[in-house]
Design goal:
Two copies of one chain form a homodimer. The first copy, chain A, is an alpha/beta fold and 319 residues long. Helices cover 38% and strands 18% of the residues of chain A. Chain A has 13 helices and eleven strands. Chain A is globular, with a radius of gyration of 21 Å. Chain A starts with a helix and ends with a helix. Chains A and B meet through helix 7, strand 11 and helix 13 of A and helix 7, strand 11 and helix 13 of B. Strand 11 of chain A pairs antiparallel with strand 11 of chain B, so a sheet runs across the interface.
Chain lengths: 319, 319
């Protein structure tokens, strides 16, 4: 909402005006205002407060909201469900079936619902976009939309900021628990950090990249996965001191029968550019048939970085 | 031509069929065949040989070729003219005025003719595209086309492969002259390597990025420029040994009055990711208002990498 506000004038010059007609979260439930909420209030402590905002009480789910306000776009940002991609898939499907564009920052629906949602979007003449699902707002999926007639052979990367920060902080002297707390205080790790530390977040990202960019539908459960919880702090420090630091490395490689992919801690030599990806940065190196080495690196991401990915999707969809 | 051939079936599935109706070079002059040359012959030793190919003798310039064959696309790949961007600008203008798309791998017309050629293309409903002008086929310009409502604040990069290879080889024991010869043998440096070693190639690339991505028309002569010829081989080696290697660093920074840009050799700490860009690789780190750090790195580029940039432009233009 803050980024939409900040870019309001610029969006207007692109022919895009907007109002926010509904918001929903586990805590708030559905708050709907057909005339459009005041965005300043939405960023405050009591976004749906009865005093500040008109609230249309009768709306209780995404279908009712879509119909009631005749919505054009849904921004979906529920948290990751590794096993099924729900409820994100249902929300996105509802938007597309109604005829609204569906934009998500959630990688769950990309790995569990890509083909269905892509085909549904196409049949409705709408867009299903998810740039922020991998590497925040860094343009991974849109980059490959700009690379026609190219074949992705393999990629290697560091795709989970939380574990990368934890490893960096452990190298610098923190314990595992202290570095997890630091990641939580920065808003990177959730209260239960196990999706990150057990490698699930990275694994779902790999599955999303393989599914979309390599065209091979892949579930997280099909990817060889190991997290960083077995690493001892003294081993992490010794590895760095010996110039072979640990990184949680994501890999995928096209094979004759499909794609082989894995996520796991590896010691990398300092000559490997991935060894220099520190803290909250992330990076992915692509090998393609016509561009032998192309890498995207994102450093210093923040909340606005993820928001920008969704904003870019929005502009691509409606612009 | 080889890449067009290799991708013929795939282009056909994109609805794109093609034939090559004319080629021209300083050595060959104009060779035109309205029915289309045999691409296999074009890659041989005698592309316009009278025996193998019908040659239409009356065509002597780009205007005659455009009219004679009713061309749809011009691929322009003359060598760099730092001072004026000619004759590339005239060739590209001729194509656009006729109503053909204009694609170039030459950065000269981007810095000396961008506004004119862009506006001309727009007025004709055609495209002026130049992805291969900077970092070969790595998608720099197309990346920013996919990043709407973004403001580029600054960038830093290593954009000239020849000098980067020369510095790497000097660190490894070659003399300056030996490393220049190696760059020439790899097809990187021209017979007269001074455009590279004096920093002109990198400077024109910086001017192209500033002009197109920052929207500030900039000529190479306005950019502070120093090449690598003043560096002594023993200094280059000592700098590397002390962990502060020399790199030919390109920079641009938006200021209150415009953009400040420079190209020159600098010693970088090993903690700087640019210090790890070795040999023929290149890299650019962008700082934008919404993505604080976004980098593109290209490694192991070759002739096909540059060709791919032009192919991607072609598909964007006609697809």
């Amino acid at each position: 909402v803050q980024l939409l506000q900040k870019k309001r004038a610029e969006l207007h010059t692109l022919g895009i005006d907007w109002r926010i007609t509904g918001i929903a979260s586990r805590r708030l439930g559905w708050c709907v205002n057909t005339g459009g909420f005041d965005p300043e209030n939405l960023c405050g402590a009591d976004p749906c407060g009865a005093g500040a905002l008109a609230r249309e009480k009768s709306i209780n789910d995404v279908h009712q909201w879509l119909r009631s306000v005749q919505a054009n776009v849904l921004f979906e940002a529920t948290s990751l469900n590794v096993a099924s991609g729900q409820p994100a898939i249902d929300n996105l499907r509802a938007a597309l079936e109604f005829g609204a564009h569906a934009i998500t920052a959630n990688k769950g629906p990309v790995v569990h619902g890509y083909q269905e949602l892509r085909d549904l979007a196409q049949s409705k003449g709408k867009r299903f976009l998810f740039e922020s699902a991998v590497m925040d707002g860094a343009p991974i999926f849109s980059l490959f939309r700009e690379l026609p007639a190219i074949h992705l052979k393999s990629f290697r990367g560091i795709l989970n900021s939380t574990t990368n920060l934890i490893l960096t902080e452990m190298e610098r002297g923190m314990t595992f628990d202290e570095s997890v707390e630091k990641a939580q205080s920065l808003g990177l790790a959730e209260t239960d950090p196990s999706n990150d530390t057990e490698g699930w977040d990275a694994t779902v990202k790999v599955a999303a990249l393989v599914t979309v960019l390599m065209g091979v539908p892949t579930k997280p459960q099909q990817i060889q996965r190991e997290g960083i919880t077995r690493l001892k702090v003294e081993d992490v420090r010794a590895a760095r001191q010996h110039g072979q630091p640990y990184k949680l490395v994501c890999r995928a490689q096209r094979t004759s029968s499909g794609v082989e992919a894995s996520v796991g801690p590896q010691q990398l030599p300092l000559s490997d550019p991935l060894s220099a990806v520190a803290g909250t940065s992330s990076a992915v190196y692509f090998e393609t048939d016509v561009l032998p080495g192309l890498a995207i690196i994102e450093s210093n991401p923040g909340v606005e970085t993820t928001a920008y990915g969704m904003l870019a999707d929005f502009i691509h969809a409606v612009g």
